[in-house]
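Blackboard transcription, Thursday session:
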Amino acid sequence: MFVVACFLIVYAGSSIGSRVSEYSPRDPLKDYKLALLGDPYMTSVAKCYQKICLNITAKPFFTKETQTWQDVGMRDAKLFSAFAERRSSADGPSVRVIANGLQEEFNHIGDLYCQMWYENGGYPAVVRAKYVRIYPSYDHHDEWVAHFVLCPMAGSFNHNYVQDFPFAVSVTPTPCSKASNALMVLNIHARKNTNTHALCLPPLYNYFRNWTMLVEMFELHKLMGAQGIYIYTQTVSKDTASVLRYYATERVTTITWNFPNLKAFQFSQRAALNDCLYRAGHLHRYVTVSDVDEVLVPRAASTWPELMRKIASPRYGAYLFQHVYFRRNNTGERPYLITHQSKWRTDKPQPPGKIRCKAMYDSENAISIDIHFPYELVYPAREYLLPAKIGLLHHYRATPTESFAKDPQRYQYVEDDYMLLYQENLTMRYINALSRIRGVHGRKPSG
Ligand SMILES: *[C@@H]1O[C@H](CO)[C@@H](O)[C@H](O)[C@H]1NC(C)=O
Ligand SMILES: *[C@@H]1O[C@H](CO)[C@@H](O)[C@H](O)[C@H]1NC(C)=O
Ligand SMILES: *[C@@H]1O[C@H](CO)[C@@H](O)[C@H](O)[C@H]1NC(C)=O
Ligand SMILES: *[C@@H]1O[C@H](CO)[C@@H](O)[C@H](O)[C@H]1NC(C)=O
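(Written on the board underneath:)
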């Protein structure tokens, strides 16, 4: 079996499984194509590797994932997490690493290899990695952007066997370099077949302190049907941290992000969102990606599951909710719930279409996602732009966007009290949550 031959080198660019029989490598470390188990030539190459590779890092040991950004020595790439990818329609079977790095189009990155470690093997299997950019930053060639590092599986892969996925992977500049990183491979067990919903929120930064807003958003989303909420932390205030600790047992998973100090957009928000797609998508059919001042509001039903029962179809990979801007207001009533006291919104989606929308993904059909919409869906799944009466993205901005501030006369506002649908239940949940947070932490966070 695969694990027996430790050093299996596979050229990622060619189709896995189709055997390349005629080739004469000049330098076995560089010039290989595709090797499958049993290939007599590769057996000798494997021996050569074995000599070199015997000296590499000791087998990693984990009790849980590291959740830190790790370096790839000699390469401008950093790694955060690794997920088993089963879908042959989505570069699988492979291990999909969430990474961030310079863009190959504008920078010389150099080769990357994956050393894949198996529970019952003493040495890793090595494959050439694919370095796949998620988000292009054409205006800033020196910007670090979200990437996948794909480590293709080889040999007689049978996705029913957990053992066929390595438990750990390291990414290295040469096949046998001593690795400076080790990632626990997540999602090794087969994905659950569910109809549940998860919410993904991007990294909180700038010592985020609006913890009451978080409580409102967590409770509102649970009310609307989110079974799991995932949120990332760059920097948060002490009070926010204690609120997140309280919610750890209330279906809210906090991922320590701490993105390194590099030139990157919003602490590589896109890497976090794609991490979340795989992390949450393994447990939940639907993964919704928005922000802490936004809600994807089902307008043809009162909850997400109810809405999906009405509109879901296997033809769709992403359900796009168009953006309406709500002026944030505080009427002085208590408790202060932003979504109840801010009622004036643009009369229609602004801008209309997908530009500013946010999306709910069918996680089985999504491969890579942007902040607002998908980059890549599993063929032939497509996007569905929801009409305003089916669903809307409510955006409760503290300050209007530039164009709203500049040309207020271009926009018509209407009073919209749809959110009062949740008033009774949300108020109750919010007050209860606040009193439990106070109970757990001895005092209410001071805000
Ligand atoms: C193995 O690694 C050690 C320490 O990194 C080094 O001193 C030694 O030369 C290496 N041996 C071989 C055969 O590469
Ligand atoms: C967070 O709260 C502070 C005051 O506590 C306020 O100045 C700020 O605008 C709020 N930020 C957001 C995003 O709501
Ligand atoms: C805020 O609410 C008050 C009371 O309902 C209302 O008079 C005012 O117009 C609202 N302001 C905004 C900016 O929506
Ligand atoms: C509010 O809670 C009640 C009781 O649990 C439930 O029957 C009702 O559907 C909820 N309403 C909304 C809008 O979630």
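Lecturer's comment: Residues 333 and 341 are 8 Å apart (CA to CA).
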